[in-house]
Each structure stands twice: as structure tokens, then as C-alpha cells.
Amino acid sequence: MSLHSKQEKMSKEGSPGYTAAIPSDASDVLEGQIVEGQVTHDAVFGDISEAGPNYRNVGWLGTVALMMKTQIGLGVLSIPANFDVLGLVPGIIVILVIAAITTWSNYMVGVFKILHPSVYSIDDAGGMMFGRVGRIFFGIAFCLYWILVAGSGMLGISISLNSVSTHGTCTAVFVAVAAIAGFALSSIRTLGKITWLAWIGLTGILTSIIIVTIAVGIQDRPAAAPQEGPWASDFKIVGDPSFTEAIAAVSSIIFAYAGTTAFFSIISEMRDPRLYTRSLIVCQTGVTATYITIGTVVYYFCGSYVASPALGSAGVLIKQITYGIALPGLLVTTTLVLHLPAKYIFVRILGGTRHLVESTPTHWISWFSCTAGITIIAYIIASAIPVFGGLVSLAGALLGTIMSFQPMGCMWLYDNWTPKDGERNWRWYWMVFFSIFVIVSGTFLTIGGTYGSIVGIIDSYNESGGSSAWSCADNSNSV
After folding, report:
1. Could you give the number of structural domains in the chain?
2. 260 CB-contact burial (10 Å; exposed 0-12 / middle 13-18 / buried 19+)
3. Is the Cβ–Cβ distance between 28 and 42 less than 8 Å?
4. Does residue 475 sit within a domain?
5. Which of 2, 164, 280, 306 could be bridged to 80 by S-S, CB 3.0 to 4.6 A?
6. In this structure, is the dihedral angle defined by the CA atoms of residues 341, 342, 348 and 349, taken in order, positive or negative?
7. In this model, does residue 12 exceed pLDDT 50?
8. 194, part of any domain
9. What CATH number does the domain containing 359 carry?
10. How far is the C-alpha of 65 from the C-alpha of 54, rounded, in Å?
């Protein structure tokens, strides 16, 4: 099969026979390996040679690791608590529905990238569809979202260090250590060289989750349950939450799938983007199976006494062990989510110049300035804002959802509103309906989730007043 035929076949897979024609420069996104002494041209990075970093060096298995690491983190550890709100059966149904929609959204990222090789991030897609306003909006949203997630990652590392060391020093010191380590690792210039870190981090977080899952199953009762007298799990098949509680739980699950915004950056650095779909299927299957298995087993044994994050559900010793094993995973998550916005700004600053692909002084100064700047902002936000946890929840509901649902529905409509063969049959009408459904449902979840998060922030602040800035208090006690 010719290269053009393969490209055309892949484009058809994205929208049941209705995708725009592939542009003649699509080969720019399909060629990625550097042969010694030769130069490869890329529509985003320009001429890539041995004189600089190889931005097109991520294999399909490495892509799986990067994809899964943008999604599996502390988010999975909140799923048992979400089941306690929604109930076991509704919780599983919500996971399956969100998995289906986000899988389609993630797939559309791959199709759109092949059709439009110059697209590097979601702001490029926003600019094509909505003009300058769309580019600016999605560019700011992309950076802000990942910076807030990076701040959350730093706090996650501080919780882990506090747990392992039994609050060995001031929490503010642990957050600073997390920021320094995150800066050092996120300054690795290409995702191809970060993939080995992703595998280590993914193995660590999955191992810790499996340990706590086994522990709650073999223990007599969870750590938070009454330790004397008979006890039985009070898990609920169907919950009875208020609207605010339900929408907040749904938003939390969406947040656990909100790696979509990073997938443009990941496919842009793949050696062969035609293998993106294979990586996506493996990723989404693994993530969904993990979420359902962990959520079901931990909630079944713990009931309403499940901790959030769930690593604290099996007692102090297990919490120390699992946080110690999870620490590399938390560090890799922080590394990756610092790298993404830094690389985005770096490409925007040096795009179209030789300094992007050559190791010049301007290249190095710009790169370290981007990674250091993003790290400092994330550190300040994580340390200085009293209700940071609520702020991250708000960002996930508002920014995570609005970048994982609505744009992808719009992307299909942008490329397929006028069918290539001019015929609008039932498949075309079905895809139009589905795209509009994704846009409308995403908008509802954005508004509802934002409302639920704001109510949660207000309630939390009224109860405790939030935490103090640069606090030394042990932040592992609540988990």
C-alpha cells in the first residue's frame, strides 16, 4: 500500500468515511527518524538534524507510557471516594461513559494532527477553528491548566515525603524540594528521553495502588473504621448524592481522564504518528481497567471509610510503604506536566528559527528560562494559595473539561461539515449528532462542574479557613 493510501485510510478511520483530504505536506508529520548526516523536516519543529535535539523520537510504546502517565496519578486514588458519592454501579457507568467519550476525543487529536501537520498544541486547532480569539484562549487555558496540575503534583510529592518520613521536616521545605527536582527533570529537552522516566513512574504508581488494594482486602477493616466490635463494609450499590456532590464526583473522574490536552504535544514527537491509534487503544484500555478495578475493590472493602487519596485506607504502615513506592510516579507526573507548558512556550518563542533545533546559546537560555519560569509559577501557586486543592478541582472542572470535550467535537465538524464526496448519508448525520452531543455534554459538565467546585471551595473555606501560605503543617494527616 502506498504512503498516500495509508494516510487516506487513517483519515477515514477518524470519521466513518467523512474526513477532509490530506494535504500534500502531510509527509512532514509522518517522517521522524534522523539518519546520520541527513536532515528531516518537520512541519512544527523545522529542520531536525544531529546538530540539535531530535524532537521526533518517541516510539509507540513510549507514547503509551506518556499517555498513561498524564492520566494515572493521584486522580485514580480519588475514584473509590467518588464511588462512595455516586454508588458502585453508577460510578462504574460514569467511568465507562467518560472513557468512551474521551477515547473518541483523543482519537480525533490523532486524525486532526495527520490532516493538519503544522498543529502542535490545542491552541493551533483553536486558531484554525475560531481565529485569533480561539488561539489565545486555548493557549492560555493549556498553560494555566498544566501549571495548576504541576502545583498539585508538587503537593502530592510533599504528602509522600511527609508520609514516608513521618513529617521529617517543614512541609514547605518538601514542596521546595519537589519544585527543584521537577525543574531538573523537566529540563530534559525531548519527550523521547522522558519516556524511560514515564515507565518507571507508571510502574511505581501502579505497584502502590495494587499493594493498597490487596491490603484493604486482607485486613479486617479499613484504618478509619471503628477498630473494636463487629464491622461490615457499608458500600452502596446506588448512592443518593445532591446535585453538587454528584457533579463534583463526575468532574473528578473527568479530571482523571483529562490528559487529552497533552496528546497533541505527544503525537508531535512520535517517530511514526500512524501508530498513535494503537498507542491510544492500549492506553485507554489500561487506564479504564485500572480505574474500575481499583475503584471497585477498594470501595467494596472500605465503604464510606475509604480515604482520599486511597493510599491512606489501609493504615499508617501501608500508607508509608505505598507512598514510598508511589514517590517516583508522583515525581514523573510533576516532571511531565512541567515539561508540557514549558515546551509549548519554548516552541512558540523560537518556532521558525534555527535556535529551536540547534543547541545554540539562545536555545539553552530560552529552554531553561521556560522550564524555570513554569516551575516557579507552579511552586508559588502551590505554596501561597490557601485553598489550593479546591483551586485545582476548579481548574480541572473548568479547563480540563473544556479542552477535552468541546474542541474535539468542533474539530470533526471543521473537517467534515462538507463531505468529501458531497453525499450526506446516515453516517454523516450520525457523526454530526455525536459531535454536537460531545460539545453540549461537555458544556454542561463544564458549567455544572465549575459550580460544584466553587460550592466545595466555599464550604471547605467556611469549615477550616483553608491552609496557610507556605505552611509547615503535616499535610499527610488528612490522608
Report:
1. 1
2. buried
3. yes
4. no
5. 306
6. positive
7. no
8. yes
9. 1.20.1740.10
10. 19
